[in-house]
Amino acid sequence: MSLLHDVDVPTKKATFAMACFWAPDALFGATPGVIRTRVGYAGGTKEGPTYRSLGDHTESIDVDFDPTAITYDKLLDIFWNNHDPTARTTKQYTSLIFFHDDDQKKLAEQTLKEQEGKQKSPIVTQILPAGTFWDAEDYHQKYRLQQHDWLMKAIGMKCGPKLKTSHVAARLNGYVIGRGGVAQFERDVARLGLSDEVADFVRKLCIKYENAGPFC
Predict the structure, then answer these.
(1) I need a surface site. Which of 93, 113, 124, 170 has the fewest CB within 10 A?
(2) Would residue 20 show up in a list of annotated catalytic residues for this protein?
(3) In the 8-state DSSP scheme, what is residue 141?
(4) Containing domain of residue 200, as a range?
């Protein structure tokens, strides 16, 4: 069975900023219903931002999801529960929701009001229309997966554009730091087309980090 790099289903897009983008890349990548992820820079006016010359942009995560498998409301729930929306920080790491249509805007505003009733400190999250999303450099894409040279070679991946489109890369980028959990990983092994050797390698990491929580 071949590795599941490409999933041919209609998708919708969700875009968030929730501090350092490595953590949400792994988090959303391991979320059932998410097809692809890519990290980049959004929300600013500078043309062609880079990590070393970010301008007024924010580190962000762009998610392609299957709306028949996961709702935008669920993605918002993941957003709110996996970072601190009250943290006052630099523009690079601020909390943002970028909406792609009126329905997303309405749901984002609704959940923001709900969160305001739960948080002890003022929420700093802004809700903005999605504009140009500038892809981050290749070495930032699927960063956790790229830390494992053997695994990258075993699934035929290298640092490059395919890291932004590969479904199996998105999943493994989460599983190697315990995102999704080992039970979900076991259900995913056959679907992703993983060899026994690759599955054993990833399983050990997933078990090791399953309860470690998000980190960047």
Answers:
(1) 113
(2) yes
(3) T
(4) 1-211
Q: Is residue 216 part of a domain?
A: no
**N residues, the chain:** 216
Distance CA 203, CA 64 (A): 25
- What is the mean pLDDT of each successive set of 10 residues along the chain, which is 216 residues long? 90 98 97 98 98 97 99 98 94 98 98 91 97 98 98 94 96 97 97 97 97 73
Nearest to 14 by CA among 105, 125, 112, 82: 105
The answer to whether 62 and 13 are in contact (CB under 8 A) is: yes
Catalytic residue among 20, 159, 206, 216: 20
- pLDDT, tens digit, for every residue of 20-66? 999 999 999 999 999 999 999 999 999 999 999 999 999 999 999 99
- Give the count of domains, the chain: 1
Phi-psi category of residue 144: left, alpha or beta, with phi > 0 → left and psi -120 to 50 → alpha: alpha
Instruction: Tell me the two tokens of residue 10.
Output: 């209609």
Distance, CA of 157 to CA of 155 (rounded, Å): 6
How is residue 53 annotated by DSSP? B
Spatial contact of 43 and 128, defined as CB atoms under 8 Å apart: yes
Contact between residue 76 and residue 107 where contact means Cβ atoms under 8 Å apart: yes
Do the beta carbons of residue 176 and residue 146 sit within 8 Å? no
CATH of the domain at 20: 3.30.1060.10
Angle between helices 167-175 and 182-192 (to 10 degrees): 160
What does each C-alpha distance from 18 to 13, 43, 126, 188, 207 come to in angstroms?
A: 16, 13, 11, 27, 25
- First CA to last CA distance, the chain: 33
